[in-house]
Amino acid sequence: MNKPGCRAGRRARRKRRKKHEDVSKVTLSHEAQFVLLRRWLKEKGFTSQSLIPVNFHGKWHPPVPPLLALCCFLIAERHRGDASEWSPYINILPKTYTCPVYFSEDIIDLLPRSLQKKATEQKEQFQELYCSSLMFFRSLQPLFTEPTEELFTQDALRWAWCSVNTRTVYMEHDQSEYLSREKDVYALAPYLDLLNHCPNVQVEAGFNKETRRYEVKSVQGCKKFQQVFINYGPHDNHRLLLEYGFVASGNPQSVVYVDLGTLKLCLDEKDKQLTQKLLYLRDNDFLRNLTFGMDGPSWRLMTALRLLSLKPEQYSSWKNVLLGAAVSQDREEWCIHSALKLCNNLTDDNVKALERLSQLKQDANLSRLEQLRVVESLRQEEQRILEHTRVVLQNLWGQ
């Protein structure tokens, strides 16, 4: 009567032993830091000998994000070369990109100040992705004859990461049990990704569940023998460069951003309320998206300047000014003069950057030259906007 139970018990014990055998473990008690820890704990009254520090190397790994899975797919298929079913597509992908994640520090320094921070953050985010993925890369070793550290390098991941960021289309997928809970919205679209972006075209794009096709429809239509464009969305040139690695000439969405450091250059340091004013603007979200456009300074920029122009006795007007209240004639003139000063400072910065770009281009290799050219295009577009802004402000000043 007890035999089935005994067999079940033996099976359970064997299963438990096998489970433990699948996990390699290393005792850490002998390591200096743990020896010191035990001595310290003993002095504090902890005497238990039942628990010892052990490093368990199990087979479990957390599920990977969809983006990383797609990156690994591209790296693996590129490694297979002509043996890959995807080789005709892999072969037409760029060998390198002009996204800021590829930029060296001296090229990042040539970006407008408001974009430098975002470019640096992009590089840091990529570095974090790479470091956090190393264990997953090592777990793929059984699939390859070459060492995975030679295959899944930082350069390889950067190439794949940019390929996914710049060339995939948005498409929602069902949740996979093998991937993390992050939303899976990436889809490679061979041939479709050859379409260039144009900010002036209108398209309707998306996956048609009925036809099982990703469809792009032009609102204006396309003429025969003319280039077919797609529109990625209402993105300014900063975002286009950051996410896609290019700049659109004559982009109606583009503006020149005024960062806090540039803003402070035109302010009166003797203003005893300056720190309080800046805190008030920040708390009300008025130190972000301060811009110049083709039609002059933005409403947000002029509103921020109007508050900064107020005298100490006008403290009670702060809230009304942020809501759009007018200021006195002399304060409005101060704002126009300050905006013109900002415009001139940004223009000078552009001129210096363009001169430096011209120098660096002379001895640059092809890859670096492409990066310098895209930054140069951005600076030239911003120079064009600032020239229009100066005319607008000079007209206002003369009224």
Automatic annotation (TrEMBL):
Positions of the UniProt region annotated as Disordered: 1-23
Domain Rubisco LSMT substrate-binding residues, every copy: 269-386
Biased composition (Basic residues): 8-19
Lineage: Eukaryota, Metazoa, Chordata, Craniata, Vertebrata
Keywords: Methyltransferase, S-adenosyl-L-methionine, Transferase
Annotated organism of origin: Labeo rohita
CDD domains: SET_SETD4
UniProt-recorded name of the protein: SET domain-containing protein 4
Origin superkingdom: Eukaryota
